[in-house]
Amino acid sequence: MMRTRPPRTALNRLSTFFVNHYRCTAVHTLLLKFVDLIRIRFGDLIRFLRTLSFATLEPENISGSHPAQVQNLVQGKWKESSKWSTIMDPLNGEPFIKVAEVDETEIQPFVESLSKCPKYGLHNPFHFPERYLSFGDISMKAAHMLSQPAVSDFFTRLIQRVCPKSYHQAFGEVFVTQKFFENFCGDQVRFLARSFAVPGNHLGQQSNGFRWPYGPVAIVTPFNFPLEIPVLQLMGALYMGNKPLLKVDSKVSIVMEQMLRLLHDCGLDLEDVDFINSDGKTMNKLLLEAKPQMTLFTGSSRVAEKLAVDLRGRIKLEDAGFDWKILGPDVQEVDYVAWVCDQDAYACTGQKCSAQSILFMHENWASTSLISSLKSLAERRKLEDLTVGPVLTLTTEAMLEHMKKLLEIPGSKLLFGGEPLENHTIPKIYGALKPTAVYVPLEEILKENNFGLVTREIFGPFQVITEYKQDQLSKVLDALERMQAHLTAAVVSNDPLFLQEVIGKSVNGTTYAGLRARTTGAPQNHWFGPAGDPRGAGIGTPEAIKLVWSCHREVIYDVGPLPRHWEIPPST
């Protein structure tokens, strides 16, 4: 057993030895400080090791010669599978993670685990309400753990290894997750299940509305936010009383595996969550056999639509977003607006579902330094600090081909970028493109044969920029109406009449308005999710949790008494 602190007797003897042999006051003081420093640093080391007691790896040590392993969790036990898939380091192509991927012959334990959970859930307002309090305690402990510099740095660096983004962007994900846990400490979990009562028609009758869990549920999340998205949705499901099966994209699932181990250290029961690594085909088969009461899917629109049919509508979606930003007629703070546009389009190498995909620029901005500032800001991004990095879902060739098609549209032009990154070791299965912007005239965008091409979401460092004149706002609004995805949007203006016009004639579920409006950077303190679709899912807030992870149940009490002298009435 490692001692919690260095042996005091040994330290005392050491200091006594020095004092007896060196009577010089200066040397005496220096040596005592040295001994104290040893004691402090050793104590720091012990605290560090205790803080990371959940961890089974060190992010910096993961390599081809020392690959990390990712296991599955089912029925309260961590398990491997008969098949290991290899994940390549997105920066150098080295096989550095082995994932125990479950195949179609191994899904039965997961099916059985979900089937054991009743439809009334693991807890509800009438059954095991103590669990609401338990999850308040778990959230408090998890928030405290993530507030520790050693823990937040661990997850930040681990995120960077599997989904390369700048330290600031990766840390932001950890920070939002930590604040989310803070928001649901103490009694806040049970407040999610707050009910209401309405007086009845007679004495003894009263109707009560309750938030009710679904019971067995599933969560499928993508690669681009390996910690924030799965944690916030997982905890929302647990808070409301559900038993979730969690699947995270295998490229990044190592992050959530480590987070689950932290949550177990914080008091989460091993059987409360199942965690699976598999390919899409296997997961689809599992969902069809297990028949979860509700599935939350975050990812591509194509997969979302298939699941909606396969699961017969028992699904909530937070799918792709071709997200727009409109710059209004009131030009001000050009440098700031340019910086926000750069962040929205190219932070995390553009791999955010909220990334700025198209910029509608009022003609008043054309005479400013906006475009030149955007170009300068984009060009300072570099692979060395991961302010630009590998694109994990598109190849370089695919992005350049899309750019080529856009440039064939009359009047279009390349504003900046449009070239592969240089001097890198990113494997060819991933993309490596300089931050890119293509100008396409508004009139051409609106043409039927161009609209689908221009509004295709490129999940990388790529945006379309266009310009509109004072009398063309209606055409911009027409373009917004024709778009299919309605996740985030920004209206950059402090003109209240302009804001009123655009917001009143658009639908995006998370819309930022005002001079400082952005499309990305959603924190934990407001709703984030699409609008205009009854399947739309939110994340992070009490409203989102209640909408996604619970349904309404009405209980009508009618206990009497009967009226005096009551008699059986005639048939009706």
Automatic annotation (TrEMBL):
<dbReference type="Pfam" id="PF00171">
    <property type="entry name" value="Aldedh"/>
</dbReference>
<comment type="similarity">
    <text>Belongs to the aldehyde dehydrogenase family.</text>
</comment>
<dbReference type="InterPro" id="IPR044638">
    <property type="entry name" value="ALDH7A1-like"/>
</dbReference>
<dbReference type="InterPro" id="IPR016161">
    <property type="entry name" value="Ald_DH/histidinol_DH"/>
</dbReference>
<dbReference type="GO" id="GO:0003842">
    <property type="term" value="F:L-glutamate gamma-semialdehyde dehydrogenase activity"/>
</dbReference>
<dbReference type="GO" id="GO:0005739">
    <property type="term" value="C:mitochondrion"/>
</dbReference>
<dbReference type="InterPro" id="IPR016163">
    <property type="entry name" value="Ald_DH_C"/>
</dbReference>
<protein>
    <recommendedName>
        <fullName>Aldehyde dehydrogenase domain-containing protein</fullName>
    </recommendedName>
</protein>
<keyword id="KW-0520">NAD</keyword>
<dbReference type="GO" id="GO:0010133">
    <property type="term" value="P:L-proline catabolic process to L-glutamate"/>
</dbReference>
<dbReference type="InterPro" id="IPR015590">
    <property type="entry name" value="Aldehyde_DH_dom"/>
</dbReference>
<dbReference type="InterPro" id="IPR016162">
    <property type="entry name" value="Ald_DH_N"/>
</dbReference>
<dbReference type="InterPro" id="IPR016160">
    <property type="entry name" value="Ald_DH_CS_CYS"/>
</dbReference>
<dbReference type="GO" id="GO:0004029">
    <property type="term" value="F:aldehyde dehydrogenase (NAD+) activity"/>
</dbReference>
<feature type="domain" description="Aldehyde dehydrogenase">
    <location>
        <begin position="84"/>
        <end position="513"/>
    </location>
</feature>
<keyword id="KW-0560">Oxidoreductase</keyword>
